[in-house]
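Attaching the record inline, Q. Sequence:
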Amino acid sequence: MKREGDGLTPIGAWAVRAVYYRADRIARPRGGVRTVRLAPEDGWCDAPDDRNYNRRVRHPYPASAERLWRDDGLYDVIVVLGFNDRPRRRGRGSAIFMHVARPGFRPTAGCVALRLPDLLRLIERLGTHGIVRVEG
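Structure, as predicted:
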């Protein structure tokens, strides 16, 4: 069973909730999914005991929260997957995204990573109610 911080990508079919993107680096991704421009203060709470666990937050934030505005380009485009969000279960995993892969496809902390052109092509093909299936 998926747990916060275990580094595992959850297996299953996950609804696409939104696409976040860095408008200062790339154009708005095309497709049917709701898109949201990232801002420097955007974050994602990964503190299981916090009321905003596995939700977008604004920095500075009093609990542990990953920064979505990154210098390394990995989060220039983020596809938010509907893992552990409806309902949210504390400690069962947060911030499961599809995002840009690291050079050499080095492992993520549980996300799905693709080359930027492939990620943008996939987003174009997602309808308004897209589903992403992750298989083991």
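The mean pLDDT is 96. The longest helix spans residues 116-125.

More tomorrow.
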